[in-house]
């Protein structure tokens, strides 16, 4: 919609932020092991810094930093490799010894910790506020958000996409964006595409 495309609709099978987005930790970090992920994350952080002024909503974005802990020599070697690459990409990340970490974070139990990787520009945002902020901004630009509307089948004709069959009827479309996250594999299969994605359960404590 921002680029001028009209007649955009977003399908949500339940309510906004009802799935994994609403249950995530809301972390926004740049410490990744692949260069492309680091670059994408750094661009995301630049966007989140401007989010309130550009999108118009307070999403409780806070850059409190991310501290990753290494408990084995193998993990230390991996941290050394990753931080070197991340620094080459311009990320403000440092590798700290246990003693250096204790001076900066005296409240953390560092028993058996051999080293840490710290990036002060990593942070956190409220996932619910962020989701609704994007939704409201999209609606202002004419996007129609259809909640409680699930995609059941992707309609094709002569090898081209012509629309989506939903639980509430058909929607014509020449272009479909698969933004189903952990369910992207299932949506891909509707179009005969086998996406190599899998979902894994994680636990978050806070």
UniProtKB/TrEMBL annotation:
InterPro entries: FAD-dep_OxRdtase (IPR006076), FAD/NAD-bd_sf (IPR036188). GO terms for cellular component: cytoplasm. Residues 1-204 form the FAD dependent oxidoreductase domain. Transmembrane segments: none annotated. Keywords: Oxidoreductase. PANTHER family: FAD-DEPENDENT OXIDOREDUCTASE DOMAIN-CONTAINING PROTEIN 1 (PTHR13847:SF287), SARCOSINE DEHYDROGENASE-RELATED (PTHR13847). This is Glycine/D-amino acid oxidase, deaminating. The lineage of its organism: Bacteria, Thermotogati, Thermotogota, Thermotogae, Kosmotogales.
């Amino acid at each position: 919609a921002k680029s001028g495309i009209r007649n955009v609709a977003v399908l949500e099978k339940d309510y906004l932020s009802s799935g994994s987005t609403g249950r995530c930790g809301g972390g926004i970090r740049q410490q990744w092991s692949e260069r492309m992920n680091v670059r994408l994350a750094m661009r995301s952080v630049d966007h989140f810094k401007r989010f309130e002024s550009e999108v118009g909503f307070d999403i409780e974005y806070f850059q409190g930093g991310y501290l990753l802990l290494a408990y084995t020599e193998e993990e230390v070697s991996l941290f050394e490799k990753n931080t070197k690459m991340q620094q080459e990409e311009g990320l403000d990340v440092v590798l700290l010894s246990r003693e250096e970490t204790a001076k900066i974070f005296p409240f953390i139990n560092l028993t058996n910790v051999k080293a840490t990787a710290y990036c002060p520009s990593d942070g956190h945002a409220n996932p619910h506020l962020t989701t609704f902020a994007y939704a409201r901004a999209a609606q202002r630009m004419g996007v129609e958000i259809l909640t409680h509307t699930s995609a059941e089948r992707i309609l094709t004709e002569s090898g081209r996409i012509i629309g989506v069959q939903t639980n509430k009827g058909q929607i014509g479309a020449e272009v479909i964006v698969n933004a189903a996250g952990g369910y992207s594999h299932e949506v891909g299969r509707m179009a005969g595409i086998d996406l190599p994605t899998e979902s894994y359960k994680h636990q978050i404590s806070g």
